[in-house]
Specification:
Chain lengths: ~230, ~325
């Protein structure tokens, strides 16, 4: 870890982000969704729908941002000559994660303020959101490491958005209440975050932690692979 | 000890001849070869993880400004020279705020130079550094080479243009199928040019220079010739892009052509002074002549000859 390098990549990526239309529209998507949900007119948005926005923010902003940034560096080979060791790749990942974190924070806070932030001002909910952020961030880094082009990331992003981002919406497919599909999707990170929000049990946090470890392993494998490739 | 050696023997490669080349940190080494051989050499060099090859293949950040790009590399490599000084050294101050996609090729090249310079790795290998860029950029590159040399970094430059090799390298080599041969950049080769006698031709015989192409004998009027260069001891007449082999050596030709306003401007070049359009002065006292022909070719001018040529052209 080298603070100077991390801050170099952070500054560079913030400047690049401001000039990149493709990335600039991403944080707007959840905000627009929030405005639409808010405009439906009901007094209070159901929790599941609030979490659709949370999941949407994490998948379309967090995962997508870091994935796009890493894939672009891969595609344009801009990192050639900069990476001499695994440590310098780590510096790059940390720098980019900081940028992603900042953008996610802005987008999430604005969207939540639009739909009413009060239910989220709670320590347990905070922890749940941070765990979710880590999960989506690791997933994004992993995919970003192995995808060689920007076009490929759009394809990889789809399952992330629909499976992990919009999990609460999957019920709309009309599966039976006790079907296998529902039982599995109930285990997904967003559903566990809703559990954390709703109940006082610590079990959902454990399950969420398992998801994060899984995503971490996936990222680690991709990291090793990208280091040995060159 | 910052010198390094490229040893070809342990690489079983049919396309490259066997050679061993030691690159010293005290002077810049340039290797001239044709593009095929150069591609092979590049492949070998890239395979060696201890050598950084600067071939401009990697991308820069095209959305952000020149200054932001340089600032990023400056910080990343932890360069000790202040950022404004780097921008001035590589003449990027005037386009500092422009995004990269609006920059000219020469400006982009200077950003690459700045990046490579700041990376501070040893040894450095450059691939065609000044191919197709303007005079200003060539000058910044020469200044940069000087600075790199000051910190005892061995530098190897691969070019496919003999003129570039002679301009940039303190030692120039020619890589051919037969092996690696040093090109002599002899400053004090006055001996050969002093040898000519005083018996200038007085008869008005028609004088032609002959060259052989296949079985034909082609005759040239001396004023048509742009310049004559020496390749492997043989003199070659160059007219625009074409070159024709002569049977004579450079010294013999020089004798004959002297009266027609030809001048031995370099150990391996004789130039037609009537076709000289420009004398280019690079930093560190090196010079080139630009020829007024279709492709505006440039040929090297020995630094010992600069006085002489100025007299010849009545510039002094």
């Amino acid at each position: 870890m080298n603070i100077q390098r991390i801050s170099a990549i952070f500054e560079k990526d913030i400047k690049d982000f401001m000039k990149n239309m493709m990335l600039l529209v991403l944080p707007v998507i959840p905000i627009v969704t929030a405005l639409m949900f808010d405009g439906i007119g009901e007094d209070k948005l159901p929790l599941a729908l609030s979490y659709v926005i949370v999941g949407g923010t994490f998948s379309t902003v967090t995962s997508s941002c870091i994935m796009t940034m890493m894939a672009e560096e891969n595609e344009k080979k801009t990192l050639r000559g900069l990476i001499q060791s695994p440590a310098s790749l780590l510096d790059i990942i940390v720098g980019k994660s900081l940028v992603t974190g900042l953008i996610t924070l802005i987008s999430l806070v604005v969207s939540l303020v639009i739909i009413g932030i009060e239910p989220f001002l709670n320590f347990r909910v905070f922890v749940g959101l941070i765990l979710l952020f880590l999960f989506f961030l690791l997933l994004g880094i992993g995919i970003g490491l192995f995808s060689k082009s920007l076009a490929a990331t759009s394809a990889y992003l789809m399952p992330v958005i629909f499976l992990f981002g919009f999990t609460p919406m999957l019920n709309a497919f009309g599966f039976a209440e006790d079907s296998m599909a529902i039982k599995i999707t109930d285990m997904f990170p967003i559903m566990q975050a809703i559990e954390i929000h709703d109940t006082n049990s610590w079990l959902p946090m454990g399950i969420l932690a398992v998801w994060i470890i899984g995503a971490g392993l996936f990222t680690y494998v991709c990291f090793r692979k990208s280091m040995t490739d060159d | 000890m910052a010198d390094f050696t490229i040893n070809q023997e342990n690489i079983s490669d049919a396309a490259l001849p066997l050679f061993s080349l030691t690159i010293y940190d005290s002077h810049v080494t340039a290797v001239y070869s044709d593009t095929d051989m150069q591609a092979e050499l590049m492949r070998v060099l890239r395979g060696d993880s201890n050598i950084s090859v600067f071939d401009k293949q990697e991308g820069l950040y095209s959305r952000i400004s020149v200054e932001s790009n340089v600032a990023f590399y400056h910080k990343w490599f932890g360069c000790h020279t202040p950022l404004p000084e780097i921008l001035v050294q590589f003449e990027l101050q005037s386009c500092a705020k422009q995004p990269l996609h609006q920059c000219s090729e020469s400006e982009i090249r200077r950003i690459y130079f700045a990046k490579y310079y700041m990376s501070g790795v040893k040894p450095m290998v450059f691939h065609e550094p000044i191919h197709g860029v303007d005079v200003r950029t060539v000058n910044t590159f020469i200044t940069m080479l000087q600075k790199i040399k000051d910190v005892a970094t061995p530098v190897l430059i691969l070019v496919s243009n003999m003129e570039h090799a002679l301009l940039l390298g303190d030692i120039a080599y020619k890589l051919q199928q037969t092996g690696m041969k040093q090109v002599e950049i002899d400053e004090e080769d006055i001996v050969t040019s002093e040898m000519e006698g005083t018996d200038l031709p007085t008869t008005a015989n028609l004088f032609k220079i002959s060259a052989k192409v296949d079985d034909k004998m082609i005759l040239f009027d001396p004023p048509e010739i742009d310049y004559i260069e020496s390749q492997d001891g043989k003199a070659m007449i160059v007219i625009n892009e074409e070159s024709y082999a002569m049977d004579a050596t450079l010294v013999e030709v020089e004798q004959k052509l002297k009266v027609y306003g030809f001048y031995r401007c370099h150990r391996s070049y004789i130039v037609n002074l009537q076709k000289v359009r420009e004398i280019i002065t690079w930093s560190k006292n090196t010079y080139s002549l630009r020829i007024n022909n279709k492709i505006q070719s440039t040929i090297p001018l020995s630094r010992t000859k600069i006085q002489d040529i100025q007299e010849k052209l009545s510039l002094k």
